[in-house]
Structure formats: structure tokens, C-alpha cells
Fold this sequence. Notes:
Elements lengths: L3 E6 L5 E7 L2 E8 L12 H23 L8 E7 L3 H18 L3 E5 H7 L12 E6 L4 E8 L2 E7 L5 H11 L7 H8 L21 H17 L3 H32 L3 E5 L6 H14 L2 E3 L10 H13 L18 E2 L1
Parallel strand pairs: 1-4, 4-5, 6-9, 8-11, 9-10
Antiparallel strand pairs: 1-2, 2-3, 6-7, 7-8
Helix pairs in contact: 1-2, 3-9, 4-6, 4-7, 5-7, 7-8
Amino acid sequence: MSITILGIESSCDDTSAAVVRDGVVLSNIVAGQQVHQQYGGVVPEVASRAHQVHIVPVVDVALRQANIAVNDLDAIAFTRGPGLIGSLLVGVAFAKAFALSRGLPMIEVNHLHAHVLAHFAEEPKPRFPFLCLTVSGGHTQIVLVRDYLDMEVLGSTIDDAAGEAFDKTGKLLGLDYPAGPQIDLLAQQGVPRFNFPEPQIPGLDFSFSGLKTAILYFLKKEITANPNFVTENLADICASVQERIVLILIKKLKKAANDMDIKEVAIAGGVSANSGLRQALKRTGAQQGWRVYIPRFEYCTDNAAMIAITAYYKYLQGEFVGQDVAPAARYEAVSNR
């Protein structure tokens, strides 16, 4: 008997719906929100209102593209958290109403758990146990993945995330939001000749607040001496910042792999689309004898396919929720050490 699941993702500023049958992605539709560029970051109230506009059309397209009728669905899955509470509320409310009207069971999904399981959207798939470096605008974690539903956070950021460091640097440089992809493109044209400090955080935890502060004071000092410093050195600044962030991430991941004696290593989350990180992981993997797993770009950023895939494995275990479920801005479904 086939299991067909409709997934909904609305944790931040992307509205997404996907259909997965027996763990195979049939459709994965994402509607972005360009309106936030003029504000230099995601405005929660604006995001939640945009989700209300997008969610019905996105679901409709996902079902039609998958050639699936509503009556063919066995469950509806949704992101419960973590994320922006207003954005999550739209997705959760839609899922509850949809499930109630069709008599379907509901499956809640942790957004970070789903990023890890995005690797099971297509081949090659990691073998258990594996390590996953999950990096995004709001989170940076090293996760030990023992099974589809058995994960442990070995290390996480104690302050800011890697993606935030990229975006805040971009703002200092006068780049449009989101700055991460622009820094990546500019870094490919530059030389990493500026030295930024490496946070001295013990164990497998991360910190990026100090790096952000160091970049701020570096730019202030250089601009005081030369008002055109950023314009004249933009590509090299981006290359230097990107190199430092990537080195911080790879160094911790390497330590985790050595400590756990694991050769299966993956990356996930929005920042895993960064070309510098992807190349560094491949190089390190070749040096360390790792089997490296890097998702396609569409499975790096927020998407509903990863939600529906996670829900498929939860469906097999009978992990359903009732109509009293509520969104959670902070939601720790992945256990900490």
C-alpha cells in the first residue's frame, strides 16, 4: 500500500508545498517573498501576510504537478517549528483545516530534522550513522544521525548562526538582502587576503558574534583611512570573510568526525548552497577518506519536500498529532547531548 503525503513549509519567508509518495518526491513548489529586500531582512508580519496569499495557490500547483487528487492523500505534514511564529501559524492553521475537512491524520515536523532528511530526497543517500553539518541563517549544528528519527546534536552555535554572519556582513558592505549568495559570487572573484579571527570555542560548539564584531571594527578602521575601501576591495573582503566562516565550520566538522570515528559526512540548510563550503567539504572529504553528501540547491533552502520526506518516516512509526497542536518558535525535536 502506497503512502502519499502533502507537506507544508512556512517557517520563515518561503511558502512551500510538496507531495511525496513512499519517500519519493513527486512535486516541490516554493513561492519566495521578494518584498523583504527593501527592508534588509525578513519582516515577520509581512512574511505571515504573504504566506496567507501564497499557501492555497502553492498547494494547488503541488497537487496538480504531482498528478495527485486530494482523495489520494494519506496524511498532511507541516513545519511546527522552529521559525517565525506568525509564519508558522499560517502553515499550521492551513494543515489543521485541510486535515479536518478531509479526515486526514496530521504529522508535525521539526524544521532542522527535515533539513537533515532532505538527503533522502534522492540518491546518493547517506548510510547510518552519519554526521550532518546543518547551517542556515538561524542555526548552526553538527548532528549525529543514527536513524531517520534518532538524532543527537553534538554541537551548536552559542550565539549567532553562520548564515547570520554572512547576512550581517553583507549589510555592512551595502549588499542587498539576502547577502549570502552575493558574498559567495563576489568571493569567487576575490582573494582572501584579509585575516579575520577564529573564535576559540571548546568542543564542538560554534560562535559567530565575535567574528561579526571583528568585521565591523575592521571596516570602520579601513574606511576611516580610505572612504573608498569597500568599493575598491569588495571581492577580496567577501573572499576573506567567506574563507574564515568556512574554515570555522570545516574545522569543527573534522573534529566531530574524528571524535566519533565516522566517515559518512553531510551538509544541509541554506548555507550548504555556498560554493566555498561545498568545495571545502569535498577537499576535506578526499583528505580524510569521507563519503561526502551534498544536496542539490533546491533541497538546501527551505522547501516542503524535506517536510514530507520526514513525515513519511514518522508515518511509518505512527507518529501523528491532534487538532490541539500549536506552532512553536523554539522546537527541540532533535535531542541534545
